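JOB MANIFEST
job_type = single_chain_structure
chain_count = 1
residues = 248
[input]
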Amino acid sequence: MKKSILKLVEKKILNKKNQDKIWSYPDFNDLPFDSVTKALSLLNQKGTIKRIQKGYYFLPQKTILGLVSHDDMDLVFKKLAKKDVFYCVSGINGYNKIGLTTQISNITTIASPIAMRSNDKIKFIQRNKPTSGTEIERIVLDALNDIENIPGTYPEKALLKIKEIIKSGKVNINDLGKSSLLETPRVRAIVGALGQELGMNKSLLTQLKLSLNPGTVYLLDIDSVLKFAKEWNIKRRSHEIPKRARTI
């Protein structure tokens, strides 16, 4: 290996703009692969960088408390980027990001089409890439699936916020409809009711309707803020409509 390649690799890693970065072989695609492999190995032996696991390295940051290790989330995002697949933060932290709740979780949920192993800090859920390819559409789909279990809010309020998101143009109702065809029946039912209210393409509405079992009833406390809930077999668990829904 030429010394010049070792110096190029080291210079790139030590650049102040890159000091929080996790490094892997694709970061040096402009250099010979074998030379990069050797350079990273030598820099690890010198203590300039530290090996996290095979093929991944980081530049340890020195503080008065000692060396700061890498961020597990950064490593996960690096691996997903390397696989060139869709992914986004969803779950409670995703719902917080789009304004459905003010709560946050110590466990980060990541939605992606591929299966990955969860740990005590990161939970992976297998989810399809949404039609638009945007994070917010994926988060909305997951929120509709979790509509009764989003902490710090209640179903009607969360659904009203989702309506606002759609009306603002951040999520396209037809894209949401197409994506929902690969989701659970109750998500399809909610999206169908939303679509009927918010101007979804009629042929897509028909496709959603035909995808559902006409005999299935979806017991969800959202009918008070969903104009066409009845047409999509969405019914309240209890007969009494809560005051909070009436005053929205």
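[summary]
The longest strand covers residues 108-112.
The two ends are 68 Å apart (CA to CA).
exit_status = 0
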